């Protein structure tokens, strides 16, 4: 199989074909960053029916080209810039450096060093991440419009408007105002514009939720079987947990989600505080699920939370314990969904990386009764002491 190394830049990309058996540079081409030039480079590469692309920094400057190649069924691996730098330093003529040498180094790393990582095509989880980011922007715009409307109604109505203000309620309140003077007329006109904007944001948020629900249903995820996880929350959890098998242990995923408490020094007893590390959006989603289950008496999360005060835990500490268990549950569920999809679709794509990374951690299992809360956290491996 021919290896084609790519050295990406902002305005140009250099591609170098390297024979993996002889490590010889066979051909090279530099193209501009345009779709027409991408196609010209792919046409040149078609002379090798079996080929693989090694893109340096595929998640950075090479992201667009990588996505374009994956969409056309090409095999692509990501090569870290540090790995290509080591190849240049250890090869003959280490002082030389140009785009062609960098592209060849990327191919050499993919062929010999084993530092390349397979890149998978974008899936529904990437679409859910985009929808979740869009939803956050829409929600912020709506909150800003509601705050401005509150300020205007406070000057038009005695006592202002209630906190939970909707477009319909604001319109009813505005109809009771009889403006007098140019300032009040202007306030009424601006309030009417803001009410129209809020209705627009509400409609867009509703459409966004429908799109999320459709993608979650398409992904056949079992996260929505968990009490407290609806379509919108499941979309955020799936979008933020794109590669669950990349975390070797449940503790590593909990660290990423910010649900691992931090121990602090205390004179009387061992204490822990809230961790502010990790993905805060993922942490907020887990917090929402935890609070929802606490308020649902028929869930295992509620039972788990109610049992914690007997162990000497405060309400906040009990919440953090529940969030930690929910992080384990989400990881197991997402990994289970991924394995079911792999069994359904067969061995298409590049499943080798998925199988290897999945085997690194403990086998996630959950029976049919574990739909609201996972069992105890998985213990971290204890390092074996080495003899002196």
Descriptive report:
By secondary structure, the protein is an alpha/beta fold. 31% of the residues are buried. The chain is globular, with a radius of gyration of 27 Å. Helix 9 packs across helix 12 (315-345) and helix 10 (280-294) crosses helix 12 (315-345). The chain folds into three domains: 2-118, Nucleotidyltransferase, domain 5; 124-219; 231-350, no CATH class. It starts with a strand and ends in a 28-residue tail after the last helix. The chain has a six-stranded mixed beta sheet. The chain has a two-stranded antiparallel ribbon with strand order 7-8. It has helices at 35-45, 63-71, 81-90, 99-113, 124-156, 167-175, 182-219, 231-240, 250-257, 280-294, 300-307, 315-345, 352-360; strands at 2-8, 12-19, 24-32, 51-56, 76-79, 117-118, 262-264, 271-273. It contains 13 helices and eight strands. Strand 2 and strand 3 form a beta hairpin.
Quick recap of the structure?
By secondary structure, the protein is α/β, with parallel strands linked by helices. It has helices at residues 35-45, 63-71, 81-90, 99-113, 124-156, 167-175, 182-219, 231-240, 250-257, 280-294, 300-307, 315-345, 352-360, and strands at residues 2-8, 12-19, 24-32, 51-56, 76-79, 117-118, 262-264, 271-273.
Q: Biggest sheet, open or closed, and with what strands and sense?
A: 6 strands, mixed
How are strands sequenced across the largest beta sheet?
3-2-1-4-5-6
Shape: globular
Overall helicity: 40-55%
How many structural domains can be distinguished in the coordinates? Answer: 3
**Radius of gyration computed on alpha carbons:** 27 Å
The low-confidence runs, each spanning 5 or more residues with pLDDT under 50, are 347-372, 374-388
The ordered string of helix (H) and strand (E) elements is EEEHEHEHHEHHHHHEEHHHH
Structural class: alpha/beta
Q: What is the rounded distance between the termini?
A: 47 Å
Overall pLDDT score: 80
What fraction of the residues are assigned to beta strands by DSSP? 5-15%
């Amino acid at each position: 199989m021919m290896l084609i190394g790519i050295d990406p830049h902002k305005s140009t990309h250099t591609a170098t074909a390297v024979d993996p058996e002889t490590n010889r540079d066979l051909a090279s081409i530099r193209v501009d960053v345009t779709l027409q030039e991408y196609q010209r480079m792919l046409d040149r590469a078609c002379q090798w029916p079996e080929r693989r692309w090694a893109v340096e920094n595929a998640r950075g400057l090479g992201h667009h080209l990588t996505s374009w190649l994956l969409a056309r069924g090409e095999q692509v691996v990501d090569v870290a810039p540090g790995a290509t730098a080591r190849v240049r330093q250890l090869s003959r003529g280490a002082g030389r450096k140009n785009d062609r040498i960098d592209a060849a180094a990327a191919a050499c790393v993919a062929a010999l060093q084993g530092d390349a990582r397979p890149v998978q095509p974008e899936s529904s989880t990437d679409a859910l991440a985009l929808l979740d980011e869009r939803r956050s922007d829409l929600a912020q715009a709506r909150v800003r419009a509601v705050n401005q409307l509150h300020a205007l109604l406070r000057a038009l109505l005695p006592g202002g408007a209630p906190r939970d203000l909707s477009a319909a309620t604001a319109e009813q309140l505005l109809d009771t105002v009889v403006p007098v003077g140019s300032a009040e007329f202007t306030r009424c006109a601006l309030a009417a514009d803001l009410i129209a904007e809020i209705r627009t944001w509400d409609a867009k948020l509703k459409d966004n939720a429908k799109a999320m629900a459709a993608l979650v249903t398409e992904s056949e995820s079992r996260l929505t079987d968990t009490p407290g996880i609806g379509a919108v929350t499941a979309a955020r959890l799936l979008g933020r947990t794109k590669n669950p098998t990349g975390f070797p242990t449940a503790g590593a995923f909990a660290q990423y989600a910010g649900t691992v408490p931090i121990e602090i020094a205390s004179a009387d007893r061992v204490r822990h505080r809230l961790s502010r590390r990790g993905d805060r959006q993922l942490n907020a989603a887990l917090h929402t699920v935890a609070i929802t289950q606490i308020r649902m008496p028929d869930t295992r999360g509620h039972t788990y939370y109610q049992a914690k005060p007997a162990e000497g835990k405060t309400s906040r500490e009990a919440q953090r314990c529940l969030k930690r268990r929910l992080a384990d549950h989400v990881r197991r569920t997402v990994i289970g969904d991924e394995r079911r999809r792999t069994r359904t679709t067969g061995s298409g794509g590049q499943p080798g990386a998925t199988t290897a990374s999945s085997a690194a951690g403990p086998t996630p299992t959950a029976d049919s009764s574990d739909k609201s809360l996972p069992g105890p956290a998985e213990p971290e491996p204890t390092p074996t002491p080495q003899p002196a």
